[in-house]
Design brief:
This protein is an alpha/beta fold. The chain has helices spanning 11-14, 18-26, 40-45, 69-82, 89-103, 118-130, 143-151, 164-176, 184-195, 202-206, 242-245, 259-264, 275-283, 316-319, 332-341, 361-370, 384-396, 399-412, 417-431, and strands spanning 2-6, 30-36, 50-53, 134-138, 154-159, 210-212, 226-228, 252-256, 288-292, 308-310, 325-328, 345-349, 374-378. The chain has a 7-stranded parallel β-sheet with strand order 3-2-1-4-5-6-7. The chain has a 6-stranded parallel β-sheet with strand order 10-9-8-11-12-13, sandwiched between helices. The protein is globular, with a radius of gyration of 21 Å.
């Protein structure tokens, strides 16, 4: 079986898919990963084969790109018309202002249907040549469904996050009664679907099924057909630092704020305003902190506490086994690594405008705290003393370790890759059209 993964070009999108891609390859299937040129080295270093698509001279920025005011205004108007209650608005805003605008990178709003789009045209050309049996696509890369249908391949989405797209389709129908064709995602995909003569339907927007790697209690409710797959952590490998070989003499805390954020938001210093408060919070504690932050993320820090080690990057699967707690931005890959190593988590979260915070943080914090595996650290109004108390609480209270065991059990209850691959093989045989 030939399997093509189509990835939106960022580590947060690529890394969750690599373990499944490797498992499929190791099971004897041919695997390729299509993404922008900027991801080729990361794909190759994972031992997989990249397919370069897109304009090499245009660096993808997704939701952080400055899109036309009229296009953003349409999103805001559509969101307001839904009149959603508290607790529902946030997932819709993440869909519209983060996920959908990320998809705009290769399906720009307002572009003529006949406009050449390298990221789409390259993909259609490759699928026509290589003839994959199955296309597994990132939900921020919906053009992959068009390429799959044209080539006769079965196709499914892979979502390592909450399924904001599937949820938004259901919620839109429920609250407006309008047809799927009026949904914002349909409007984004329609021009390129018409260009290639492909029917715009629910399957084109949401896949023939969805591979979902979130545990129960974390997922958004949707009506999509779902194949559950236990998440497995991947991070780019580097040699283990000499200092990491020695066991810590004091409780060690890992601190990370994500690779994708510092790649996509280098000029948004507001994203990192809470870092100095975190440093002040740990400075007076009898702990050692390993902070995987770069100069962008340290832009507001005047001095580094003596008990904080700054490292631009170290893989979490090397660092977390030595740690008593993790302070992070709530990225799902980071959550998964902490869950597998059963490390309690303190997740930085905020009620700030959506583009100024990591879109997964609230969802991750809600799930982790509901399982008693950590605490939410409010960074909208950062208080050094409150942060210090929360860190001390997580270090001292054994109930958080019990909570991490519950989260670990949630993951272990999900199907592993051998079972998932057998299901994918069966569904592919049922859905491919050639």
């Amino acid at each position: 079986m030939r399997v093509l993964f189509v990835i939106w070009p960022a580590p947060a999108h690529l890394y969750p898919m690599i373990p499944l891609a490797r498992a499929l390859r190791d099971a004897g299937h041919e695997v390729r990963i299509a993404s922008h040129q900027t991801m080729a080295d990361a794909i190759t270093s994972a031992g997989l084969t990249p397919v370069r698509i897109g304009d090499p001279d245009v660096v993808p920025m997704g939701a952080t790109r400055q899109y036309p005011a009229a296009a953003i205004g349409q999103l805001l108007t559509a969101s307001a018309e839904l009149d959603m209650p508290d607790g529902v608005r946030d997932p819709w805003d993440i869909f519209a202002l983060v996920m959908l605008t990320t998809a705009w990178e290769f399906l720009p709003p307002g572009a003529p249907a006949d406009q050449y789009r390298p990221g789409v045209d390259d993909l259609v050309e490759f699928t026509g040549q290589w003839q994959p049996d199955l296309v597994l696509w990132d939900h921020c890369a919906p053009a992959a469904a068009i390429a799959a249908r044209l080539s006769g391949a079965a196709h499914a989405r892979f979502t390592p996050w909450q399924d904001y797209f599937g949820w938004s389709v259901d919620k839109y129908a429920e609250r407006t009664g309008k047809p799927l064709a009026d949904h914002l995602l349909a409007e984004t995909v329609r021009p390129i679907a018409e260009r290639f003569g492909v029917e715009l339907d629910r399957e084109l927007l949401l896949g023939q099924w969805t591979v979902d790697s979130l545990p129960a209690g974390f997922r958004l409710p949707t009506s999509v057909k779902t194949v559950l797959a236990r998440p497995s952590h991947y991070s780019a490998s580097v040699p283990t630092p000499d200092w990491l070989r020695e066991p810590p003499r004091r409780p060690r805390i890992a601190m990370t704020m994500g690779l994708s954020l510092r790649q996509l938001l280098p000029d948004h210093k507001v994203v990192w305003e809470h870092v100095p408060h975190l440093f002040d919070a740990v400075a007076r504690l009898d702990v050692e902190v390993v902070a995987t932050l770069n100069q962008i993320q340290l832009s507001g820090v005047d001095s580094i506490p003596s008990n904080v080690r700054i490292v631009d990057y170290v893989p979490l699967d090397q660092l977390l086994p030595t740690c008593t707690a993790l302070i992070s931005h709530g990225g799902v890959s980071t959550f998964v690594s902490a869950a597998h190593h059963q490390v309690p988590q303190l997740i930085t979260d905020s009620d700030a405008p959506i583009i100024e915070r990591y879109p997964a943080s609230t969802a991750t914090a809600t799930y982790v705290t509901s399982r008693g595996a950590g605490l939410r650290v409010d960074i909208r109004n950062p208080s050094t003393e409150t942060m210090r108390q929360q860190i001390e609480q997580v270090l001292a209270d054994p109930s958080f370790r019990e909570g991490t065991a519950r989260v670990h059990q949630d993951l272990m209850a999900m199907p592993g890759y051998p079972e998932v691959i057998a299901t994918l093989e069966q569904l592919t045989a049922e859905h491919r059209s050639r």
